[in-house]
Amino acid sequence: MQREKSSVDRNHAALPQDDWETERMQLRTDLGGRMKAVRLGCGLTLEAAAQRTGLALSTIHKIENGRVSPSYENLVRIARAYDIGMERLFSSDHEAHQTTRMSVTKAGQGRKVRSKNFEYEVLCNALAEKKIIPLVTLVEKRAPLRPEDLESHDGEETLYVLSGRVELVVEHYQPVILEPGDCAYFDSTIKHGLRALDDTETKVFWACTYIDVDT
User: Fold this and answer.
1) pLDDT band at 142; cut points 50, 70, 90
2) How far apart are CA 28 and CA 146, in angstroms?
3) 54 to each of 59, 125, 174, 198, how far by Cα in Å?
4) Can you say how many angstroms the Cα of residue 213 is from the centroid of all Cα atoms in its chain?
5) Which residues, at least 6 apart from 63, have a Cβ–Cβ distance to it below 8 Å?
6) Residue 172 Ramachandran class (φ > 0 left, ψ -120 to 50 alpha, else beta)
7) Which of 88-92, 145-149, 155-159, 181-185 has the highest mean pLDDT?
8) What are the beta bridge partners of residue 112?
9) Bigger pLDDT: 77 or 171?
10) Separation CA 6–CA 57 (nearest Å)
11) How far is CA 211 from CA 2, 14, 57, 111, 155, in A?
């Protein structure tokens, strides 16, 4: 019996597992390289970056060397500490002084970023210093979320389910199951987490506000 294609297979043109693992590692390496270039461009040592972000020096070093994938929370902390828009971390050809006020991303052409439990497609990178980060996110199935699995950060978020079913856990509220067409909006400063419930491909459109350091 032919094996049913997993969500990762479908999302990556049916790549064999070894090829996807190679691509995943390359995505991690590329992101780390961009983050290191931005840090050096800001004139920051690893020690100074650790002090600004509140992250361990070893964590920043591992991220920059492609050894670990940063969480969305840590991406926000790093961007804010470096006083840049998050798009600078996702685009290798981004120019700091772009003046365009409109950006379009065609289907499937966003910047792919892999974190521990999600794969993000970051949309509309060309728009500099934007206040909203639009993402299409592939959500993985995993065990019920524990308090230590939740994270929080400044800003607000909204998500709209495109396919599959997800469980949204927000601290102080009962977990809620969302299906295609369902939408949720919540305060990002409250601890929260998301997981897929089924083996089918699960995608959400996820928009998060990004708040500058001085606001």
Assistant:
1) very high
2) 26
3) 10, 26, 31, 35
4) 19
5) 31, 32, 35, 69, 70, 74
6) left
7) 181-185
8) 121
9) 171
10) 36
11) 48, 38, 24, 21, 6
Q: What is the pLDDT of residues 44-81, one digit of tens each?
A: 778 888 888 888 888 898 888 888 888 878 888 888 88
**Assigned token pair, 123:** 């949309």
Confidence label for 99 from pLDDT (cuts 50, 70 and 90): low
Residues 137, 207 contacting (CB under 8 angstroms): no
CA contacts within 13 A on the Cβ side of 21 = 3
Taking alpha carbons only, the member of 93, 190, 71, 200 closest to residue 141 is 200
Q: What 3-state class would DSSP assign to 120? A: strand
Tokens standing for residue 178: 């969302």
Report how far residue 193's alpha carbon sits from residue 82's, in angstroms, rounded to the nearest whole number: 25
**Residue 8 is encoded by which pair of tokens?**
């990762």
β-partners of residue 176 are 168
